[in-house]
């Protein structure tokens, strides 16, 4: 183990530069968020992830945000274990009817101020699962959503841009 | 003692069912088949409803032949297989939830996938029923001194799929674990009914996102065998390449995550790097990190160009250098071995009874790998170089070691595939109706185990009925047994070492 740790210390880090805050995609995403709701919360955001019936593809890419390449914690973003500790609910999946109550309870348990990010095509409107008897049809069918991140699944870089857009005050970037 | 093949000669053979026979049997023969399973002669591969019939897929004792038996249920009832053979219990509960067909004698009468939220009951029956009242789910009891219950989920503390676990514990020790699943049920089989083969393929690939290539592979093969289609040779090899890349990515993720659940984060960090390398290679070669929609009925969706070859060779080289020190690290860290050795024992007898496949089965002495026993192209051509790694200890450590061996094996397979793939040529043939109904079954070895796909296509090649059976159906129940007498804190370790699919299971 010492050898591996030592090599990591003297070698170059794998961590890639993060997206710049004047990235047009971030600006576009930030504009989606209502300006009155955009309050700077110090230098970080605590995120509670919730799978509302996804196929698990989105979860895999959300997991990847913690790997050495993306390293989301350096941006002040971190995942928390309880909605009570969260600023943001990151929700995936078409919202199966079997998960709707759990989603609502988690949302209510998250103290204000809070934001909801719906990640993935299914979370947007149910995606390819829409119209069936088992799905409610996207996160906004159950709770108010502040930001949609599209993709099936969204790549980690897309997730990162979306979360950064939430965190930065979009008007700062435009100045 | 008649073999399975001899027994089913008494049934009525169905004409267009490939590659194995499907026979309509009467109640007596159905019960006999169930009894044989209960005696350990063969394993249950699947049990699903179809209008007013029930199908049962059985793997015979040689593990080389599959038979599908059908019982017609004009009265809406059929003899329960679960009454004699426990692995069928949840399958029958799900079948009843979806089709309203009643397995007579089923010991567990509770609903499974139906949580009373759909606004209707029996959604796949000819006439779904209106939603009635559903009683609160009655979890199984454990009686004794100083017992307490711990309820976990459906929302879990990590970035993970939803499901409910009800523990009964005595202090730190787990006395009983009961799972309740179905939270991610999306009605996939209902959405597939009447769909085009392409739309159904997209749904199949999103049944369990981490196994999208394996599901796409199984669905495509079932469709092709139902229609009697041969796909181009280059596509055959590309499919295996994608399947092996998917296996590698998932095994790296799992090995890292299991060690992380024992508090050994350095393995997660380094395995996470290797997983990311595999996903980026998949993106560069096939246009999607997880390779969704890359394996399609008729072939594959995109070709591998020569820069892609180089990239994959580089990936194999990178892993070849980075992985052995990580294996050594795992093996030499006593405090980690202390957590994984002897924890979460899955007894070989239970594994055999449940026909539990994948890394879990192979870590508990069950030498079944669909790529070998029920070999399909191109694996049949690579068999002489192929050993199925099997261990007998059945603990978390064994399940990690099987994954390590399979990583090494997948790397070898990838190199063979690159060497043998035929030159640039067609990668896809059109899929059209044949003017008659056709049924097909396929079994593909995904990273977690064998994925079963069964499909009936109408004369225009639209899906009349498709059933997808995740390997987790036969793994989830075994987890309940494996956690017994372990401490609650070892549950994440056991659960991750199984890594069953919630979404794949729930459909």
Summarize the structure.
The complex is a heterodimer of chains A (175) and B (507). Helices cover 33% and strands 13% of the residues of chain A.
Tell me what the structure shows:
The complex is a heterodimer of chains A (175) and B (507). Chain A is of the alpha/beta class and 175 residues long. Chain A is built from 7 helices and 5 strands; from the N terminus they run ααβαββαβαβαα. Chain A has helices at 2-10, 24-32, 57-64, 100-109, 121-125, 156-167, 170-174, and strands at residues 45-51, 77-79, 88-92, 115-119, 147-149. A 5-stranded parallel sheet of chain A has the order 2-1-3-4-5, sandwiched between helices. In chain A, α2 crosses α6. Chain A starts with a helix and ends with a helix. Mean pLDDT of chain A is 86; it is low at 34-38 and 169-175. With 507 residues, chain B is an alpha+beta fold. Helix content of chain B is 40%, strand content 17%. Chain B has a 5-stranded mixed sheet with strand order 1-3-6-5-4. In chain B, strands 2-16-17-18 form a 4-stranded mixed sheet. In chain B, β4 (43-50) and β5 (53-59) form a beta hairpin. In chain B, α6 (212-227) packs antiparallel against α7 (233-261), α7 (233-261) packs antiparallel against α14 (396-420) and α8 (265-286) runs antiparallel to α9 (306-332). The model of chain B has no long low-confidence stretch (mean pLDDT 95).
């Amino acid at each position: 183990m010492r050898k591996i740790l030592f090599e990591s210390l003297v070698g170059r880090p794998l961590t890639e530069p993060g997206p710049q805050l004047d990235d047009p995609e971030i600006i576009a995403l930030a504009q989606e968020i209502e300006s009155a709701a955009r309050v700077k919360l110090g230098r970080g955001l605590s995120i509670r992830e919730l799978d509302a019936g996804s196929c698990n593809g989105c979860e895999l890419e959300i997991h990847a945000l913690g790997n050495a390449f993306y390293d989301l914690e350096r941006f002040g973003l971190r995942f928390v274990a309880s909605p009570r500790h969260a600023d943001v609910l990151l929700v995936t999946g078409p919202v199966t009817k079997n998960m709707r109550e759990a989603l609502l309870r988690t949302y209510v348990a998250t103290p204000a101020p809070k934001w909801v990010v719906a990640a993935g095509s299914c979370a947007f409107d149910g995606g390819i699962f829409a119209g069936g008897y088992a799905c409610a049809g996207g996160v906004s069918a159950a709770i108010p959503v502040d930001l949609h991140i599209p993709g099936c699944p969204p790549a980690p870089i897309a997730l990162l841009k979306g979360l950064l857009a939430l965190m930065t005050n979009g008007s700062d970037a435009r100045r | 003692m008649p073999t399975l093949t001899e027994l089913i000669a008494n049934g009525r053979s169905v004409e267009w069912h490939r590659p194995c026979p499907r026979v309509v049997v009467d109640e007596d023969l159905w019960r006999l088949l169930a009894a044989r399973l209960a005696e350990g002669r063969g394993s249950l591969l699947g049990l699903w409803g179809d209008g007013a019939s029930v199908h049962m897929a059985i793997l015979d004792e040689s593990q080389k032949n599959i038979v599908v038996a059908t019982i017609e249920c004009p009265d809406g009832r059929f003899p329960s297989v679960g009454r004699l053979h426990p692995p069928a219990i949840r399958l029958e509960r799900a079948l009843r939830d979806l089709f309203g067909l009643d397995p007579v004698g089923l010991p567990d009468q509770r609903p499974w996938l139906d949580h009373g939220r759909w606004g209707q009951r029996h959604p796949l029956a000819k006439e779904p029923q209106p939603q009635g009242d559903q009683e609160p789910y009655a979890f199984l009891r454990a009686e004794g001194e100083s017992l307490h219950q711990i309820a976990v989920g459906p929302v879990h503390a990590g970035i993970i799929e939803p499901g409910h676990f009800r523990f009964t514990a005595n202090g730190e020790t787990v006395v009983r674990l009961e799972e309740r699943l179905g939270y991610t049920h999306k009605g996939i089989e209902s959405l597939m009914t009447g769909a085009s083969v392409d739309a159904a393929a997209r749904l199949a690939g999103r049944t369990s996102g981490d196994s999208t290539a394996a599901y796409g592979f199984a669905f495509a093969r079932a469709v092709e065998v139902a229609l009697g289609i041969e796909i181009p040779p280059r596509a055959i090899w590309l499919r295996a390449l994608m399947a092996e890349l998917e296996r590698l990515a998932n095994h790296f993720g799992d090995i890292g995550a299991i060690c992380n659940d024992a508090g050994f984060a350095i393995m997660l960090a380094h395995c996470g790097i290797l997983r990311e390398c595999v996903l980026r290679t998949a993106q560069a070669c096939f246009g999607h990190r997880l390779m969704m929609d890359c394996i399609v009925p008729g072939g594959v969706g995109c070709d591998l160009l020569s820069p892609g070859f180089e990239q994959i060779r580089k990936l194999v080289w990178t892993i070849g250098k980075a992985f052995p020190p990580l294996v050594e690290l795992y093996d030499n860290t006593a405090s980690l071995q202390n957590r994984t050795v002897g924890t979460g024992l899955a007894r070989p007898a239970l594994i055999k009874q449940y026909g539990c496949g994948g890394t879990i089965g192979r870590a508990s002495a069950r030498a079944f790998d669909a790529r070998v026993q029920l070999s399909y192209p191109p694996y049949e051509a690579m068999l002489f170089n192929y050993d199925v790694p099997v261990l007998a200890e059945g603990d978390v450590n064994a399940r990690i070691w099987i994954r390590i061996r399979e990583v090494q094996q997948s790397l070898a397979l990838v190199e063979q595939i690159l060497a043998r793939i035929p030159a640039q040529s067609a990668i896809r043939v059109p899929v059209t109706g044949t003017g008659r109904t056709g049924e097909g079954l396929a079994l593909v070895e995904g990273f977690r185990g064998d994925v079963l796909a069964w499909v009936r296509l109408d004369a225009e090649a639209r899906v009349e009925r498709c059933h997808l059976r995740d390997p987790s159906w036969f793994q989830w129940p075994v987890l309940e047994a494996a956690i017994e007498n372990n401490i609650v804190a070892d549950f994440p370790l056991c659960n991750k070492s199984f890594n069953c699919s919630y979404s794949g299971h729930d459909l």
